[in-house]
Every structure is written in structure tokens, then in C-alpha cells.
Amino acid sequence: MVKEVGLLWNANDGFKKLERTLLRVQAMLEDVENKEISHRAWKAWVKDLKDAAYEADDLLDEIAITSTMSSSQEVNMSSFPSIKPHKIDTFQKKVDEIAREMEYLYMSKLVGSAQIKTKERLPTSSLLMEDEHCFFGREADKTKMIDVILSESLGGNDNVTVVSVVGMAGIGKTTFAQVVYNDERVCKHFESRMWVSVNNDFDVKKITKSIIVSASNKVIDLMDLDPLQVTLRHYLTNKRFFLVLDDVWSENYNDWDILQAPLRVGAPGSKILITSRSQTVSKIMMASHVLSLQRLSDDDCWLLFQKRALGNMNSRDVPLNLKTIGMEIVRKCEGLPLAAKTLGSLLHAVTNENEWNTILMSEIWNFEEDRSNILPALMLSFQYLPSHLRQCFAYCAIFPRGYEFKKENLVLLWIAQGFIQAKRGRRLEDLGSDYFDSLMCKSFFQEAPADSGNLSRYVMHDLIHDLAKFVSGDECLEMQGGGGLDKPYISGNVRHLSFLKGKVSTEMYEALYGSQSLRTVLLSSELTTYPIHDVHFNLFVNLNCLRVLDLSITRIHELPYSIGNLKHLRYFDLSMTRIQTLHKNICSLYSLQTLKLKSCTELIGLPKGLVRLANLRHLDLDLNPRLTSVPPGFGRLIDLQTLGTFIAGVDTRCQIGELMDMRSLHGTLCITQLENVDDRRKATQAALNDKQHLRKLKFLWGGDSQDNNGVLAGLRPHQNIEELHIEYYGGTRFPGWLADSSLSKLVTLSLFSCRRCKTLPSLGQLPSLKALVITNIPEVETIDVDFCGAGNVRGFPSLEILDFSNMASLQSWNGLAEGDLPCLRKLTFSSCLKLEALPKILCSPALEHIKISDCPEVEVLKQKDLPISVRSLIINSCSLLKRWHETEGKNDLSRIASDREVTIDGLRISSS
Question: Alpha-carbon distance 372 to 718, whole Å?
């Protein structure tokens, strides 16, 4: 693309030089990020270098945009600003000047070795630094780990097995390992115990030598690896040993293979315990047992804090005012033992309330390093990251403390900022997912608490969030509104901005208006206290560098015309807004990659020019009754990775065939208004069987539609599909592909309101099906042997959940054979008004939960009908079954209730 635009202006040589310059800028930035140099001249130069990198990124983006526009026959190039060769020359001169300054600074005495801070942390030893009675909150973990260590085998074939302790910096991994290492039972059990502090330099020779010294208590002069390993093997042969490798960082398989070669000779029951901040290390070392240390409770943190601050003072004797402040300080530690001990030490023997309040109100990052080891411990984790992960992590400073984010969304933000380094043959989204997983494995991210109700969300520990703020410097700004007297100010160094609290005032908009260097603006009401009602018409006139704009959950109902100025915009979130139409200027945002329109319930249409956005990869739409069509020519968006909903239109220019060439679609796709597709040939044009990356499909017809049986037949999905939902299908029978065992990955299937179908397909032939929901198919009267299928795969071999509801005509289910539904755990019959008898399915050996509701004709349920595996039986509004229980079957259900939960119309049945 650069070459094409260069030829357009006869400036190809200039573009080649620009490409080389950009590589120099990137290399220099990666180099200087590995150095902590305090000299002001150096810091100023680094700032200039970063500014140059941002300017280079903008320049390349302009080139890409102009190239895209020039290739479009629909665009009048004269209406867009173009890049002149002199702009490239000017930038080239600027970078050359920075490079000359760098050479002077780097080679001069200003950057002497004395000014480059080392990243190495102090080595650890096996000796406990304090009394084991100060070991709070880990007793259960300690007992479990010691039991594992003393066991003869963990299921492997080797004499020597590996166990690991992982967790974020400061969580107490080393202390935990020391307590285990010095436990009396461990000391007696092993013939030889060794402790080696590994740290971030995984030097195999050095580590091997340290193991020998620890095993023999002798100083050795050997230097080469071979004699070192031979010597170590001599010391360990046929001995049951316990080796602790503390603080392992290396994720290199080869390092570990070489190191463990002489360790395999130990006697059965030998153990190696590693501690690491990385889950990946545990996997590489093939740990048989992994303990992830969790945060301490506030009560345990308080005990640690009190011990450091007040010595042996009894908790009852602690002055109430100090305990109140101390508990607030402890909550600030977020369960991190290192923080509790450090802050407690800062207040050792201090009883002045003002001093305690000072510590409470101070930012942990403001403490001098000689007084606090929190910063060095956490910074080491950051400094050890590769450069591409550093910028991804630092960007997370834009979120507020405790903010729960989705993995997929954060990856899209990284992509929008250009943080993901492209690799041949891999999607940016997949690479970004790998980045996220790496940070997760290294304890920078954690899963959100389960009680928050947010599944698949993640959060940063408060101190990790503070680390992100610290390393991002002044590039990320959390701006707060409100009634302050100071006029809002946004520094020219700020690149990423979010509004967190208070009302967005006119003054704040004015400050935002003048911030030309911003690349991210988050105005989402998910972050702010007061939702935004409108956006000033000229707000985006000057924000020419913006890559990310989030206006989700605001109350805006229209976009300003100035939205068209955001030529660099790649990520735009309008979800859950009151937007009715998208301004046509949005169609000139040629860099746009992600457009989110979820839950925009008042949106009535998409602009026709949307199909010109060739870089669009994610168009997040969901069901919206007001949105009745997609723009003509929608199929031109062949690079779409995400398309939540596609509306099959009546117009020949926006029918289902627009999906044909969208082979890159991933995730979930819902196709609505299928009543507008009138034959199988048109349905087949969607080419769903070619879309191997789709995992969830929903097919929706209008409520009163009729089908000639051919449309659904033509919508056969790819065999990789995992979830399928069919709703309001108007055909009289289901297509053969729905029961084809080639759909080997289908896990969840729901058939809803298929009102004209008289029989159910042979779904028992689906080998991986785990959940089946069949609702409101009123023409089905019986279920016979065909339902379970025939052939090599039959009888629902994997089904765990089966739910029949609103089956108005269903009378019986016959034809079940012994061995059918072997995995069924949960069974529901609801509103099956004519069902007379429950099927033999109740004999399934794995069945645990049964619910029978609104089935008035079912009359008998005896103890012998239920397997012993059933744990709960709920019966609601089943008049004959209730009457039978009250007259003849009371003893049956009472015996069932002797060791299970049996409820009839909300009343618990007692065995007595």
C-alpha cells in the first residue's frame, strides 16, 4: 500500500526511507524501555522519541486511508486532504535529529552504568525471615501442599515429580515455600533438601552449581556444565530429595530439559517445588499439582499488618482510633501480604494518629524505594515483559480501579491502537487473545469474582492497576467531573482519556475539544455516574488522531456532523444508546474496524455508504424490531469477522445471498426474517457450510411464516457448529442434516415454536449433544424409536440436559432401549397437557434432577421408576399425579423422599 501511494505521488524513494525510519524508531523505543535512567535530558529525549513514534503511526495511517480512498471509484479524492511528500520529508528530518541526540546521550557519560538501575531482586534463602506464627491465612493450603509433597506418587511414571506455587508478585509464594520447606514432617521425610533462588536469569550452569552446593554444603570450583551435572547426579542417585526452585521466570522448554537431566536419578517420592509468577512455567515444567495462591482475607491481612506495626500487642489492646485507620489501610492492600507487611513496617512503633492517616491517604507509589519494596516487586514483573505486552498492559490504566472487562473487547481496543504485531497466517484477534492469555498467566489479570454475576470478565488487582497507571505515566488520564473550581486541563502528553465520575461539563468538553493528540476517549456511562445526553456538534473537529471512541450506554440520540473528521477512528462503540440513525459522515471513516451497535433499540436503519468501509471487521448488531434491513451491497464487507445479526431482506439487493463471500465470520450469527427467503436455492447462497469459524447459529422466521421445507435444508451449517437455535420454522419436517452425525461438535440445540412439524428428527445420532430444548411444537403427538436414531451413533450418548415444554399434543414417548441417554442428569417436562405416562428415560443411571410441571394427565410415579441417582424431584400442577400420591402412592413418594428432595406444588414431602 505504501508503494502504491508513493507511485501516485512519484515519491516511492521517500516512502522506502520512511519505512526504514519507522523500524529505527521502534527499535530505539524497545531499547530505551529496558533502561531506567534518571537524567532529565534522557527523559526528554525518550518523550520526543515516543512523540515521533505516534506521529509516524498517524502518518502511516493517513497513507493507508488515502490509498483506500484512491482505490474506491465512489469517492471523490478532491474532497479529502492528501499527504504531500514534503510532510514525509519533514518527519524524516525530525527523526534524524532525535537519532543524533540519542547517539550523543547514549554514548556520552550522561548514560553511565551507574545511572542504569538493575532489575535483579535480592536472592531468597530457605530460612524463614520471621516466626512461623506470623504465617497467617494459609494453613489449609499448607496442609494440602505438604500432603502432596509427602505422597509417594502423583500419578506419573517418574521417580521425581514437580509441584508448583503460582501467584502475582507479593502474594507470598516464597514465604509459603519456606514454611513448607522447614516443616518438621518434610525435614524428616527427605534424605536431602535443597533450596535455590533462581530469579529472572535462568543460567543452567549457575543453578546446577547452586543445587550441588545446597546438597553437599561444599564450595565447588567446577565451571563447565558436564562435570557439574555429573557431580549433581552423583549426589542425588537413589536419594529421596526435595528441591525448591524459588522465583522461576524462564518459559523456555529447552532450559528446563537441560536442567532436569541429572535430577531424574532421585529415589521414588522425590519432589521439586517451584514458585513462579507465571502459570506457563508450571505447564512447561509439567507440574503434577499447581497451587494458585489467593489473596488473604482482610482479617488475616490485619494480623500481618498489626504484627509489623504494633509488634506483639494484643488485638484487644490496640487503640480503637488506630485499629479503625489500620483496617482502612489493610483494605487498601487488597489481600496482598507484601503490601500489608510493608505498610505495617512503615508504622512500626508509631502510635501517632496523624502518621497513620498519612499512610492511609498516600499513594503506595509515592513511597521511597528504600522504605517500600512493593514498587520494585511489581515493577520487576512489568520490566520482564516483552515490549509488545508492556504497551498492552500499560494501556489498561485507562480503566478505573475494580473495572470488570471482557477479554474480546480489550483485544479489539489493542488492535485499534496498533499494539498487535501482525504475523503471517494469524488473525490479529487470535494474536491479541494470545497476548491477553500471556498477561493472565503472569498474574496481571484475574478472573472477576463469581459473585459479581459477570461471567467471562476479568479484573486487575488494585495494586496491579496502580502499576499500570505508574508505567503509563501521563499518557493515560482518568478525568473526573463535578463542581470543582479548577478549570479542567488535559496535558498535551495525554493520549488516552476516560471520564470516570461526575457530570461532563461544558468546561470539560472545551478541554477535550483542544486535545488534538488524544487517541482514546471513553465517555461510556458504564464508567460515569451521570449519563451523557448529547455531544456538542463540533466536538470532534480537532480530535484528528482518535483511534477509539466509546459512547456506549449514553443517552445520545444523534451523532454530530464532526464525526466524519475522525479519519483514524478504528473502534466506535454506540451500544445501548438512543441513536436513531447514523450520520452519513460515518461512512467516510475508512479506518474503522469495529462498530458496536448492540441494544440500540431505537435504531431504524444503517446508512447505504456503510458498505464502503472495507476495513470493517466487527459489526456488532443484535435483534432489533425497528431495524428491518441491511444496506444493498452488504456482501462487499467480506472481511467481517463479527456480525451479530443479519436481516434477510425482501429487496433483491440485500437478500440472504449477501452472506455468500463472508467466509471470515467468527463466533455467533443470528439470521432473522427468514420468511423473506422463498426457496432452497436462495438459502443455499448464504453458503453457511463454508463458514468454518462460526460456532453459534440462530435461525429466526416471522411468527406466522410457512416454509416449503427447502429453506432450512439450504441453511446447512459447517460441521464445526457448536450451538444451534431454530425458532418459528414453518416447515412440516426438519431437514436430514439436523440429525447427521457429521455435526460432531454440536453441543446445544433448541427447537422453538416450529408449529407445523409433526415429527422430531433423529437427534440421538448427534455424538456431542449435551443440551436439548424442545419448546412449543404442538403437532408432535408421539416420540418413537426414530428419535434416538440408529447406526454407529445412537441413543444420545452425551446428552445431559433434556427439556420438553409447551408440547400441547404430546401423549407418549416409546421406543427407548437399554443404554439410551447414559449421561442424562436433568429432565424437564413442562406444559405437556396430554402426556399420560413418563417414559423409561427415568431409568437413566446418571439422572439427578427431575421436574414435572403442568402435566395434568400424568398419574403414576413409583419408587421403582426412579434410579437411585435422583437427588431432587419437583412436581407442580399435576393434578392426577397429586391425587394418586394422596390416595395410593403416598408410600412410594415418601420412600423416595427419605434421602432426596421431593416437592409437590411447593410442599416438601417427608419420609415420616
Answer: 57
3-state secondary structure of 293: coil
Query: How far is 857 from 577, CA to CA, in rounded Å?
Result: 49
Closest CA to 429 of 659, 689, 640: 640
Residue with cell 517445588: 273
> Are the beta carbons of 170 and 463 closer than 8 angstroms?
yes
pLDDT tens per residue across span 268-303? 999 999 999 989 899 998 899 999 999 899 999 998
Are 577 and 553 in contact, with CB atoms under 8 Å apart?
A: yes
Measuring CA to CA, which residue among 860, 754, 863, 867 is closest to residue 821? Answer: 867
Helix (H, G, I), strand (E, B) or coil at 12: helix
> Quick check: helix, strand or coil at residue 194?
strand
Alpha-carbon Rg for the chain, nearest whole angstrom, is: 33
| DSSP at 607 | -
- 801-805 and 782-783 as β-strands: parallel, antiparallel, unpaired? unpaired
**Sheet harboring 618-620: ordered strands across?**
476-480, 496-501, 520-522, 548-550, 571-573, 594-596, 618-620, 642-643
Q: Long-range contact list for 706-712, CB < 8 A, 24+ apart?
A: 706/730, 706/731, 706/756, 707/675, 707/731, 707/756, 708/678, 708/679, 708/680, 709/733, 709/735, 710/679, 710/680, 710/683, 711/674, 711/677, 711/678, 711/679, 711/680, 711/682, 711/683, 712/683
Amino acid at 688: L
Distances (CA, A) of 308 to 134, 168, 199, 356, 375: 10, 22, 26, 13, 19
Q: What are phi and psi of 337, to 5 degrees?
A: -55, -40
* DSSP class per residue in 837-882: S--GGGG-TT--EEEEES-TT-----GGGS-TT--EEEEES-HHHH
Alpha helices in 580-677 (DSSP H): none
Beta strand 907-908 pairing with 901-904: antiparallel
Residue whose C-alpha is closest to residue 170's, from 325, 347, 364 = 364
**Structure confidence at residue 333 (pLDDT):** 86
Q: Give the three-state DSSP class for 241.
A: strand
What CA–CA distance (Å, rounded) separates 141 from 153? 19
Residue in the structure block whose three cell numbers are 480503566? 399
| pTM score | 0.86
3-state secondary structure string across 663-730: CCCCEEEEEECHHHCCCHHHHHCCCHHHCCCEEEEEEECCCCCCCCCHHHHCCCCCCCCCEEEEECCC
Consecutive H or E run containing 885 = helix 879-887
Averaged pLDDT of the chain: 84
| CA dist., res. 819 & res. 816, Å (int) | 9
DSSP secondary structure of 64-86: HHHHHHHT-TTS-GGGS----HH
Contact (Cβ atoms closer than 8 angstroms) between residue 635 and residue 628: no
Residue 777 amino acid letter: I
Contact call for residues 559 and 583 (beta carbons, < 8 A): yes
Closest CA to 555 of 601, 596, 587: 601
pLDDT in tens, 441-460: 988 998 887 665 555 899 99
Query: Would you give the end-to-end CA distance of the chain in angstroms?
Result: 82
- Cβ-based neighbours of 530, under 8 Å, separated by 6 or more: 481, 502, 503, 504
Q: Residue 596: name the closest of 576, 625, 566 by CA.
A: 576
Number of other CB atoms surrounding residue 704 within 10 Å: 9
Residue 111's pLDDT band, with cuts at 50, 70 and 90, is very low
Backbone angles phi, psi at 785, to 5 degrees: -60, -25
What does each C-alpha distance from 263 to 11, 182, 196, 242 come to in angstroms?
62, 21, 14, 11
Interior angle at CA 640, CA 634 and CA 645, nearest 5 = 65
- What is the spatial distance between Cα 857 and Cα 811, in angstroms, rounded to a whole number? 9
More confident of the two residues 610 and 891:
610
Q: State the Cα–Cα distance between residues 880 and 836, nearest whole angstrom.
A: 10
